[in-house]
Specification:
Elements: H1 2-7, H2 10-22, H3 28-41, H4 89-92
Helix pairs in contact: 2-3
Length: 101
């Protein structure tokens, strides 16, 4: 929904959400389709010879790309000993019988 709001005004996105919920769907794709249908149905949405989807001009974005510095140093070698699973071997042996039968 937030990405759709970059391209369409809030009233059209809200109309798309309302129409999608009325149809029993919460899919973002359905909301986008319904919002675009609502935008195309508005009076004056299209200029002469223009299709409804062509009237939806993207709004200018103020998004910026942030580049993070790359880590150049490698991690130091792990000097810890490998873990032992010897204590778990007792789980593999069948249980000892108690008493005689």
């Amino acid at each position: 929904m937030l990405l759709l709001h970059r391209r369409l005004p809030a009233a059209q996105v809200t109309a798309g959400i309302t129409a999608a919920l009325a149809a029993g769907s919460c899919s973002p794709d359905v909301v986008a389709i319904e919002a675009r249908k609502h935008a195309a149905s508005l009076p004056g949405a299209c200029a002469a010879g223009e299709q409804p989807w062509q009237a939806l001009r993207p709004r200018p974005s103020r998004a910026a790309v942030v580049t993070l510095p790359r880590r150049q140093a490698e991690f130091p070698a792990d000097s810890r000993p490998a873990p032992s699973v010897a204590a778990y071997d007792q789980l593999l042996a069948p249980p000892a019988r108690r008493g005689g039968a």
